[in-house]
Amino acid sequence: MENNYKMVAKTLYGFEPLLAKELKNLGAIDVKEGVRNVSFLGDKGFMYKANLGLRTAIKILKPIQTFRIDSEEDLYKKIYAMDWPAYLDNKGTLAIDATVHSSRFTHSKFIALKTKDAIVDLFRNTTGFRPSVDLDFPDLRINVHIEDTFCTISLDSSGQSLHKRGYKTATNIAPINEVLAAGMLLMSGWDGLSDFMDPMCGSGTILIEAAMIACNIPPNLNKKEFGFEKWKDWDVDLFEKIEASLLSRIRGFEHKIIGYDKAPSAVHKAIDNIENANLTEFIQVEHQDFFQTEKNTEGHLHMVFNPPYGERLELLNLEEFYKDIGNTLKQNYPGTQAWFIVSNMDAIKSVGLRPSRKIKMFNGKLESRFLKYEIYEGTKKTHKLK
């Protein structure tokens, strides 16, 4: 059996515990939470499994070298000394991503450029040919991470970010990131054991992620290509075996997943994306204004949504809009656990209900709160007496 090695899964702020739990459930060893990342041990097969099966990971990196550097020239020399022909051919393509947290090194683009220069110079000087840069679909994507004077060089096994699941061809204004949607659902405790609703579903991301969680479908099943598929040690038989084992764990779903949106264009886009994800049998989308609706399902309803924000709210009266959300929930949706994300902190006051939880997260660069509201059958008092 192939030896285990260290890998790092990158994620969004606040999602580290979710990702650590996902990794343990998949079978990772020595799982350790960091800041916006979780490190773990696994073999090549597990790297394939992590890319296919993790809902809250953005990238899976495989560190191949760490060293201290005291200047850009020092970085160049140490990169030049590495065994790049083991990973890349002289006529191949590469892309470099650099992340820098250092007072000595401040420009990530310059660090990426220095790294690229060292690699192409090595090939040119030893073979007469040099790899070229391809930012979109390179044969090898390299990640350079500098923390103070400590440098880690990793291979990016994911290629394009894992939030690009491959099912979304149609989006509306400011669509929610798929990893953010999955993380919100997992944080809300969504387990597929009740009916689910997204009353402002936009292009359907939350609905699709909810269905994939409910049915235990690997989130990146529709992804066109992973970075590791161009690596020299790519093992298609092993990948297909891992994929088949994840597919064998898919389960049925006995409840309803419902999406509403008041924009007909959003409804069409959601239906297209749901079809692309092969989830039409599980999700139903309707052209409805949430404020004109009432709960039409029996038993507990689990609700997660991303109300319009920023530029999408310009035509709305913010105070009134959030007040309407609170009133609709309170009057028309008894027996519902409602979660939604808000980036305008004043909006929380307008809801008129007291959230039982407030979780800090980021929607893109916007600091936000993920709020939980329990809407009881009857009054809260009678609920407690039951």
UniProtKB/TrEMBL annotation:
InterPro entries noted in UniProt: DNA_methylase_N6_adenine_CS, RlmKL-like_Mtase, RlmKL-like_Mtase_CS, RlmL_1st, SAM-dependent_MTases_sf, THUMP_dom
This protein's record includes keyword Transferase: yes
Pfam family, one: RlmL_1st
Domain THUMP: 46-157
Keyword Transcription regulation annotated: no
Keywords: Methyltransferase, RNA-binding, Transferase
PROSITE patterns: N6_MTASE, THUMP, UPF0020
CDD domains (alphabetical): THUMP_AdoMetMT
PANTHER family registered for this protein in UniProt: RIBOSOMAL RNA LARGE SUBUNIT METHYLTRANSFERASE K/L, RIBOSOMAL RNA LARGE SUBUNIT METHYLTRANSFERASE K_L
Protein's name in the database: THUMP domain-containing protein
